[in-house]
Amino acid sequence: MRTKTILELVALVLIWSGSWIAIKWGLTEIPPYSLVFFRFLFACPVIFAISYLVEGKESIKINRKEIVDFSLLGLLGVTLVQSVEVVALKYTTAINSSILINFNVPFIAIFALMFLGESINKRTALGIFISFIGAIFVVVNGSISGFQRINIGDILIIISGVLWAAYSIAGKKTMEKRTPMAMTSFSFLFGTIYLFPLAYFESKFSFVDNISILGIGSILYLSLLCSVFAYISWNRSIKSEKASNVAMFLYFIPVVTAIMAFFLLGEKITLFTIIGGALVIFGVYMAER
User: Fold this and answer.
1) Which domain range does residue 172 map to?
2) Confidence label for 149 from pLDDT (cuts 50, 70 and 90)
3) How many Å apart are CA 5 and CA 82, to the nearest integer?
4) Overall domain count for the chain
5) What does the angle CA 17 – CA 268 – CA 286 come to, to the nearest 5 degrees?
6) Which residues contact residue 184 at a Cβ distance below 8 angstroms, ignoring those fewer than 6 apart?
7) What b/e string do you get for 23-45 counting C-beta neighbours within 10 Å, with b at 16 or more?
């Protein structure tokens, strides 16, 4: 792997790890749906501009037949996934979120079996099972009565992973006709449109008058770095290197997030979080091999 690609992927890991911290900080000033709305409101024109410059004007054209497909992708991959994820972070930790979000990989395998006819071998099935056990460790966190007081935030993060898996499978069909960047651009567009009423009726944007540099910084970080730069870097790396080698870098995200959350948010790292996180990551590794 080229040094340039490695450095780019390291930056990607740092950016996506920091996204959980940025969301936590943003939520101290901005309501959940509004935070997601402004994230994509800023990201949308930027990704369209880049798509136009890189792939030409055909990439930003849409025909009537594609409206339903892109509308569904925007609803799934932007409106629902991001809304559920941000609401979840009001109740759970950045550490738990960065671990449990990896649960989308087993669900992608299951949905691919159900809707695309892709097979699941014994190794993948074992990986899914190990990930499931790891998720239980993280959610229960060593408490005998853990199932009686499960954190709703943890459950919502898992749900967002299921929604992302559905988006990924739906998007695979779309990418047979359109490029990943074009698909993402229109997903951002429709997702932002659907987010507007949620954000408006949530607070009527009254928080804008009192927003600080921290709140503005959180929005810009999530929109320009996490939604635009990271996406472009990821696809560029996937295109130039072996996909499995690039994917390995994702396993560092929960580790880096845990370190960031410990120092920046004061979150605790328990033994069961470490064990559960290791099981989830190892199970995901097995499932996608």
Assistant:
1) 3-288
2) low
3) 28
4) 1
5) 50
6) 47, 231
7) bbbbbebbbbbbbbbbbbbbbbe
